[in-house]
Amino acid sequence: MYTLVVRPGCHLCEQAEQSMTELEAELGIVWCSQDIDSDPRYSTYSDDLPVLLREGRPIARLTSSKSALARALKPPLWHRLRNSLHVN
């Protein structure tokens, strides 16, 4: 599950939400947007919006680019290597 931390009225945040909507349709990802002002847990990201989180950890900051967000959605390198080696 991915969370996109945003602020209403933020132009970059709106673009990032559009990019995530397109990636959802293309890749079948599950994500939601979270208004930073509605939950104090996200206040630490105030200067970095939008922020994309994977399982609560930031994987992309300050970007609305569809290509940058798509790169961030890829599994971590160690996970890709493990899968390519067929190690269980």
From TrEMBL:
Lineage: superkingdom: Bacteria
One Pfam family in the UniProt entry: Glrx-like
Designated name of the protein: Glutaredoxin family protein
Organism: Flaviflexus equikiangi
InterPro entries: Glutaredoxin-like (IPR008554), Thioredoxin-like_sf (IPR036249)
